[in-house]
Amino acid sequence: MDLAESTPLYLQIAEQLGQAIRQGTLVCGEKLPSVRETARRYGVAQTTVVQAYHWLEDARLIAARPRSGFFVSPRPVVLPEPGMTRPMKRPRPVSLDWLGQRVLGRRQPEGMISFSSGTPGPDLLNADRVRRALTRSVQQHRHLLCTYPGSDGHEDARRALARYAVGLGCSLDPERIIIAGGCMDAIALCLRAVTQPGDVVALESPTHFSFLELLQALQLRALEIPTYPRHGLSLEALQLALDTQPVKALVLVPTLSNPLGSCMLQTERRRLVQMAAQRGLPVIEDAIYADLAEGDAMRRTLKSYDGTGHVMLCHSFSKTLAPGLRLGWMEAGRWTDRVRHLKEMQAGAQSAVLELALADLVTQAGHAAAMRQLRSAIAVRVEQARQVIARYFPQGTRASDPPGGLLLWLELPGGLDAVALHEACLQQRILIAPGTVFGAAGRFRHGVRIGLGGDWTPQHLSALQRVGEIACEMLAKDRGG
């Protein structure tokens, strides 16, 4: 078969097989040809076919069965998707109320079945793998426990992170990487480096609740930019905002945004970086969910297109390896020296032993396979949840269809109030996140974020069904009145 030269061979093969699956040429449950047979058919190495099959696994189009081969997966349930969000007319100071802390804060009501978390729980993460890496690090570097660490991070850890960043499309100088106490800590340092109290910061809309908390703490004003649930931030709306408002920085999550789960197209990412360079705009990129995205192309960061240093890349492994390590890192572009100074003055340093354990984990030969396994397990859970939503939630409910991650964004029909639904569910010991906590001005009153992370039990799908039933009861009561 004639394969074009501009795209990697494995991706060309995956796209051709994927098209056959989507068109129904290969049907649900059908076994794919063996790796050897496919390699012979396309005239490529077997390793190339293995890459293609792994890509199709990540895209939830096929599934591997032990000692049997690869089979076409069932087609995911189809639900209508939410529309693009509306623009915010002017920047607003951030003033968060008690509701967001109750739903998404560290102290939540006990005894709840919670849908507030987008972080994989212990059942999805490999605690033994992390434990072994920590043990090796302590044994090999125990002398570091008796010395103060450097504020930038251990040199070997920064080199490992630079190697890891190649998978994000980046070629980074280890000397410019700074290790921080988590991704949000890195974002806070970047924001402080480029803003002053009262400045305007542009955000996706809806946006991550923790971003709003951070802006409130730094006394910054939020300007929410309309966002497409599938492809992310509207660059046309951003352009208008830059033309009419004194925007000092942009904070966004291009891959699997929180709460929408959107992924920007690579053409849009490149265009955004060009806009930032032309405007001199600092862009703070949160890439924490990159490893949970289904396809390699979605993991390429804004930073990979940055030739002028206007993109400040922030990342951590709390969504994929070990939230308990509390380690993040950043490459702050032209503001690296400023960020480094701020960190030295106020944030201090992390444990070098933990940093080297993290370096061990992300450079292990089996790390890529571990990420594929995690994505596969997450995809099963998300699809189960979407099936429950399609069956039990009110007709007309819209649901996002993110290409990875553990978050679903719902739009409720018929004027159904998400805060009222939250309160009704709370009475039955079920915790959901109403959309109002993901905007600076109490917007998204008909939106709900469903988080499928945390401690997951067999009761969660039953509880999600009950949420849908409560929503139906509320809607029927409203219409009957």
Written description of the protein model:
The chain is an alpha/beta fold and 481 residues long. It folds into three domains: 9-72, Arc Repressor Mutant, subunit A; 97-124 and 370-480, Aspartate Aminotransferase, domain 1; 127-363, Aspartate Aminotransferase, domain 2. Helix content is 40%, strand content 14%. It contains 15 helices and 17 strands. The protein has helices at residues 9-22, 35-42, 46-58, 98-104, 127-140, 155-165, 183-194, 209-217, 235-244, 266-279, 336-347, 352-363, 367-392, 418-426, 459-480; strands spanning 62-65, 69-72, 92-93, 113-114, 177-180, 200-205, 221-228, 232-233, 247-252, 283-286, 311-316, 328-331, 398-399, 407-411, 430-431, 433-434, 447-451. The strands form four sheets. Strands 3, 5, 6, 7, 8, 9, 10, 11 and 12 form a nine-stranded mixed sheet that branches. Strands 13-14-17-16 form a four-stranded antiparallel sheet. A two-stranded antiparallel sheet has the order 1-2. A hairpin with a 7-residue loop joins β13 and β14. The longest helix has 26 residues, at 367-392. Residues 1-6 have low confidence and may be disordered.
